Amino acid sequence: MYLGSFSPDAGVQRGTVDPRTGVLTVGATVPDLPDSSWFAHSADRRIVYVTNELPEGHVSAVDAATGRVLNKQSTHGEAPTHLSVHGQFLLTANYGSGSVVVHRLAGDGTIGESTDLVTHTGAAEAHAHQVLPDPSGRWVVAVDLGTDSVYVYGLDPASGKLRARQQLRLPTGYGPRHLAFHPDGRRAYILGELRSEITVAAWDPSAGLFTPGQVIGTLGDATPPQNFPSEIQVSPDGRFVYAANRGHDSIATFDVRGERLAFAGTTPCGGAWPRHFTLDPTGRWVYVANQRANAVSWLLRDPRTGRLGSPAGSAAVNSACFVLFGRNAR
Predict the structure, then answer these.
(1) Domain that holds residue 131
(2) pLDDT at residue number 173
(3) What family is reported (predicted)?
């Protein structure tokens, strides 16, 4: 397992997990990777790509087996918060400068030169928070918290250039942070950080267009306190959606009912300010990076009902912000 944190000297730590008990044991630190806020595997899982969320942002390629840093490249922007792999390209969102940068990946998985940089504009200052390919592989989707928009781009495989297809404008002050696609590739769930809401959007992969639908609160019908949702994920079987609530310090569970979500409840996350979480490969455990608790906690999950149990344990990780299972985890 790889663990990310906002730390100038220990931004990445490696760990191991006992799949039977869920217990996480934190191990060695990977040096020279400060403020490592997001990770993604290469297609063959030999390399982990890492954002270094600094004023002069960069992305790093790390050997997944040894933890050795292979190379780094500038993101040509500020505070990169998210990255993903799309074929022969690495896509990165620069939160501070509101831009999306594309890098070509070399045959050995190292990060090559950038091929494009697109800066968002709007009535408010742009803050690109996520960028990822759609499930069909035909489109690139960028979520911008500052412009209250989700952008759809095509990506030319020869030039590495982005071309605009759609700007889905959400209500002013929605603050879209992340989205997660349903496994059927026809729906997406857009998480609003500033309104504690999820928008269910139909997705047409042939046209590259979103159509927004149901809006539901991350705390059900409850009036949210000071709460800022951070992460959203869909179970691999597509039956459940989960969202992390920072402030309320919980994980919300939703049942997927066709084109709609039904709120099932919240479970304490086992810490404070859950910035990220992930399901383990067995589907039996959920690991939560609790940034202000300086810990990663784990909760038992029932794969049949989708319900989460009380926190079962935690491990110390300074300013924890991300959890990624290693190359051999399936």
Answers:
(1) 35-169
(2) 97
(3) Belongs to the cycloisomerase 2 family.
